[in-house]
Amino acid sequence: MLIQEMLDFRGEKKDMLGYDLKDDLICFMQNDPTFYRKEYYPVIHKFKEYTKSGKTVAPRAFEGLVKHAYECYQNKFPVEGLDPTLEADMCEDVCKEIHRIEEENIKKGLYDN
Questions:
Q1: pLDDT 10s digits, 46-64
Q2: pTM (2 decimals)?
Q3: How many domains does the chain have?
C-alpha cells in the first residue's frame, strides 16, 4: 500500500498522474496540429458564428470534442494511470474552461480576419 493511500482518510481516488490532466488536455487540443486543424478549429469556428449572431452556447456543446480529444490524447500519449474514459466531472470542467477561453478570444477579436 502506498503512503498516499494510507493518508487518504476519505477514501477518494487521488490524482496519481503528477500533472493537471485538464490543463494538459486543453493544451493538447490547442497545440496538436492535426487535432487542431481537423477537430478543434471547425468547432470553434461554429461557436464563433453562433456567438456573433447573438445565440448562447452552453459549455456542454464541447462535450463531443473533449471526449474525442481524450481518445486521441490517450493514443498519442499512453500514460500509465489514465482512465479508459474521461470522467464526467473532468469532461465538464474541460468544457467550461474551453468555453471561457474561446468566449474571451472571440470578444477580443482574435479570430477576426
A1: 999 999 999 999 999 999 9
A2: 0.81
A3: 1
